[in-house]
């Protein structure tokens, strides 16, 4: 049985995960740490093109080149099974574990398990969903060898603890859309980005704002500089931003979901979200100039139809519920949604209540947060 991770070991592992947000070439190192922490044989991080059954990103550790080539044959089967299970999944924070969620009768007839996993001695796989849209599926997974046995509650608990950190790193990396960020050139690299980014110290003081963020601060956008301190116009957003910044300064391992998707826009406006990336730890981030404890990345919500389609598939929404959701994601109020869809306000409210029940949330803000935690943002927020 694997030993428990010390706080120092956990912090070091999470630091390596966050370094990958700025330098994706570090994923193999971080995956090796995740694999060892979960007492597994292999670890994989991938971004799948569901429309064409191909892999866009595929980082692995512990898999021999021969089996990497062989696995490509089974991508359609893997996609089909994961999407079938995902359509009825209770929570995207829950891992998919083969030994718990795949019937033995299926394993006995599956070409993937019989021809690819079994010959490698692999007996169990635990997968986590990071991003899911109608055309994209991103996740990370570990597989265990027969000498390690099947996945236990220890690995599930630790995997769920790592999940928000991996998700934050992957989504921020998608927002950056750049290669390696040089240590001495952080400010210059950020200035070249289309999304707004603000670097802060532990008090939330603005150390650097890239060009997009400066424009947002000057034009009365969702963030503001109040006597040198980064603030959001919405008090609850400011509170969460500063909580995340304080956690980033004190112990990035404890940040969890805090600051992962902070709603900055007011009701009735297109949603704009912030994500807080800890900057004080890790080998890469701690050496950058200007020194900062947090980088706040600001981006639009995803396309409303992509987002609504993703939730519809993940939680079994009806067509009417999906239309209501798409309108809400676009920034419309429930009354405006009812009017645009030519339905009664009470009908729109019933659809929204059904969406709440199916997704397990109770407020529109939490519904938007759920979307932003699992769907990558697009573009640059308007002024």
Automatic annotation (TrEMBL):
Query: What is this protein's record name?
Result: HTH luxR-type domain-containing protein
**Superkingdom, according to UniProt?**
Bacteria
- List the SUPFAM superfamilies hit by this protein, alphabetically: C-terminal effector domain of the bipartite response regulators
- What Pfam families would the database entry show? GerE
Q: What is the lineage of its organism?
A: Bacteria, Pseudomonadati, Pseudomonadota, Alphaproteobacteria, Hyphomicrobiales
Q: Which organism is it from?
A: Mesorhizobium ventifaucium
Sequence ranges assigned to domain HTH luxR-type in this UniProt record: 314-371
